[in-house]
Amino acid sequence: MAVNNAMTADFLRSAYGGESMAHMRYLIWGDSAEQGGFPNIGRLFRGVGYAEWAHAKNHFNVLKQQVGDSTVAAGAVFGHTSIVENLQGAINGELHEIDQMYPVYLETAKFQEEKDAQKSFHYALEAEKIHAKLFQDAQNAAKDGKDIGSEAIYVCPICGFTEIGDHVDHCPICGVKKDVFKSF
Ligand code: FE2
Ligand code: FE2
Ligand code: FE2
């Protein structure tokens, strides 16, 4: 894996930064959800946090030949309050990635013929669409004081595809067999 053009490399670094922070933020909010009596929403945060780790890993690996320090500017969401507000922060972050960040990064990678970056951005964009919906469903439950269901949450370690319950044989985003999915 490699990247040749500076603009796509900058976008990979920024996306790596954003995904790294999302990973950490979801673990923190997941602990809060569990402590607040919403253990299944806690698992959702942890599962999606693992998906964000997969995105960060993919971006990092495309950059693997870009050795050296870099200052990274990346979008970050702050706030650690009620479960409904934390879920709103999660939804806002995912929607920013879906509506603006990843479409722009993906078009740039296409323009610059950066095949590896295209794949990394494509995987993330498709998984974030699912994350936004899962967090919205969880917020709807939390607004009524309810947790989500207790079915296992499965996450593809290659692309970050996430599903509640066991529904697919192959990952619908990257095509890998479900045997490699991690469950939460
Ligand atoms: Fe992500
Ligand atoms: Fe996400
Ligand atoms: Fe996948």
Written overview of the protein:
The chain is mainly alpha-helical. Helices cover 61% and strands 4% of the residues. The chain has one domain: Ferritin. The chain is built from four helices and three strands. Strands 2-1-3 form a three-stranded antiparallel sheet. Strand 1 and strand 2 form a beta hairpin. Helix 1 runs antiparallel to helix 2 and helix 1 packs antiparallel against helix 3. The chain is globular. One fe (ii) ion (FE2) binds next to helix 1, helix 2 and helix 4.
Brief overview, please?
The chain is mainly α and 184 residues long. Helices cover 61% and strands 4% of the residues.
The number of helical elements comes to 4
Which CATH class is shown? Mainly Alpha
Terminal CA distance reads: 29 Å
Q: What is the fold-level CATH name, i.e. the topology?
A: Ferritin
Low-confidence stretches: none
CATH superfamily: Ferritin, core subunit, four-helix bundle
Instruction: Please indicate the percent range of residues in DSSP E strands (runs of 2 or more).
Output: under 5%
Helix percent band: 55-70%
Number of strands: 3
Considering the chains and any ligands shown, give keywords for the structure.
three-stranded antiparallel β-sheet, mainly alpha, 4% strand, 4 helices, 184 residues, binds fe (ii) ion, Ferritin
Question: How are the secondary structure elements laid out?
Answer:
Layout: H1 6-35, H2 39-62, H3 83-111, H4 115-143, E1 153-155, E2 162-164, E3 182-183
Antiparallel strand pairs: 1-2, 1-3
Helix pairs in contact: 1-2, 1-3, 2-4, 3-4
Bound molecules: fe (ii) ion (3 copies).
The site of one fe (ii) ion has 7 residues, from helix 1, helix 2 and helix 4.
